[in-house]
Amino acid sequence: MQNSVLIIDDEKKLCGLLARIIELEGFQVFQAHSAKEGLKVLKAEDIFVVVSDVKLPDMNGVELVKEIKKVKPFVEVINLTAFGTIQDGVMAMRNGAFDYITKGDDNDRIIPLVYKAMDKARLQYRVSELENRVARKHSFDGILGQSAALKAPVSLARKVAATDTTVLLLGETGTGKEVFAQSIHYESNRKLKPFVAVNCSGFNHEILESELFGHKEGAFTGAVRDKKGLFEEANEGTIFLDEIGEMDLDLQAKLLRVLENQTFIKVGDTQTTKVNVRIIAATNRDLKKEAESGKFRLDLYYRLGVFSIELPPLSQRKADILTIAAHYIKEFAAKVNRPDFTIDAGCAELLMKYPWKGNIRELKNVMERMVILSDSSLLTADLLPYEFHIAPAEGNSMLMEVMEKQHILKVLNYTRGNKTETAKLLGIGLTTLYRKMEEFGLEK
C-alpha cells in the first residue's frame, strides 16, 4: 500500500496524537518508539514516509536517516526535534532527510510535508522498480539455455562482471554477444549507470569518430553545435563496441588512449575530456590474425583481450534450441495478441536438425515468421522456410523448387501481394524475390 507512514518517537502520547492527525488525511500509519523498533517495522511493512524524532533512546534520529536509506533508499524521512540546531539540520539533509523541522512551531507544516514526501517516495519507488525490472531482464538468469557449451562462458562472464576489467566477446554473428554485454553491465557495480551500445560497422570513419567522442561546433560542415559523444553519454557506466574489428586503424589509436588513461579529444577540440567508462568489445573476426596481418592494432588487441570470452554457435547448443524457440514464440504471440503456440513433433525435429548458420538471430526471425503465418495454435513443419526441408530431398532439385515456390506463395498470400513485406519475411532482397517469382512463373 503506497500511502504508509511510520512515526518514530519515544514520547508515546505525542506519537499517538501525530499518528491520529496523519490518519485523518487518509494515510495508513504505523508507530514505533525506538530506532530499533522503527527499523523492524520498516523492513516488515510497505513504508514510504518516516516521521522521526531526533532524540531517540537508542540512536540519534539524524543518524537513523542513513540506516533507513540503507534498508529502503526510496523512503523519505522527515526529522522532528524539540530543539533544532543548524548543525543537526544540515547533517540531516546530508544524510538524505526530506526535511528537518521543529516540533510545535511547525505543526501546520507536517501534513503538507508528508504529502510532498509521499509523492517523491512514490516516484522514487517506481523508478527503482523499473530499474530492478531492467536489471532482472538483462541479468545472467535471463540468458536462455542450460547446455554445457553455454555454462562455461556464463560462468566466466559472472566472474568478470563484478570488476571493471575490459572484456572482449568473441563468436559468430547472432550468438548473443550484446545480451552477454548487457548481463555483465547489469551484474556490475555500474548497473544503475548508462549502458550504451554502438555497432562500429554501421558508420564510416568520420561519423564513427564523432559518434564515439563528440565534436565541437564548427569542427566540420554540419557541426552547428557542440555534441556529446557516446563515451560521455556512458560516463560511469558501460560502452559496448560491437564489431570492433571493423574500426579504422586511426580511430583504433584514439580508442587505445581511452583504454590507457580514460581520456580523449573531441573532433575539433584542443582540450582533453576525461571519462570513467568500462569497455566491452565484440567481434566475429579473429583479431589476433587481423593484428598480425596489420589490419588491426596489436597493442589495442592486447588491451581489449585482457579477458576474452568465446560464445558458442547455436549448432553447439542443440539442447537449447527448443527452449529459445519457445521463448520467442511466446514473445511474438503476445505482440500479435494471440494465444500461445505449441510446436508439433515434426517441426521440432526439423528445428533440431537445422544447422543455424545465423545462430540465435536466425532462430528468432524464423519463429516470428511462423507465428505470423500460422492459422492455428499449432506450429507445423510446413510453416518453416523451404531450406529446412532440403536435406530429406537432397538430390531432387525439382521437389526443392516446388517447396520453395509453395513457401513464397504462402508468404505472398499473407502479405496480400506486398512484395517488400514478403521479401522481408522471407529474409531475401526485393530483387531476389522478383527473380524467384519470374523463375516460378508467379504473377507480379
What does this entry look like structurally?
This protein is α/β, with parallel strands linked by helices. The chain folds into three domains: 4-133, Response regulator (Rossmann fold), CATH 3.40.50.2300; 140-312, P-loop containing nucleotide triphosphate hydrolases (Rossmann fold), CATH 3.40.50; 315-439, Helicase, Ruva Protein, domain 3 (Orthogonal Bundle). Helices cover 48% and strands 14% of the residues. The chain has 18 helices and 14 strands. The protein has a five-stranded parallel beta sheet with strand order 2-1-3-4-5, with helices on both faces. Strand 4, helix 4 (86-94) and strand 5 form a beta-alpha-beta unit. Helix 3 packs parallel to helix 4 (86-94). It is globular. The N and C termini lie far apart (61 Å). The relative contact order is 0.07.
Return the CATH topology of the largest domain: Rossmann fold
State mean pLDDT (0 to 100 scale). 87
- Write the CATH architecture name of the largest domain: 3-Layer(aba) Sandwich
Secondary structure: number of strands: 14
Major sheet: size, sense and barrel closure?
5 strands, parallel
At the fourth level of CATH, the homologous superfamily of the largest domain is P-loop containing nucleotide triphosphate hydrolases
Q: What is shown here, in short?
A:
The protein contains 18 helices and 14 strands.
List keywords for this structure.
Rossmann fold; 5-stranded parallel beta sheet; 14 strands; 18 helices; 444 residues; Helicase, Ruva Protein, domain 3; alpha/beta; 14% strand; 48% helix
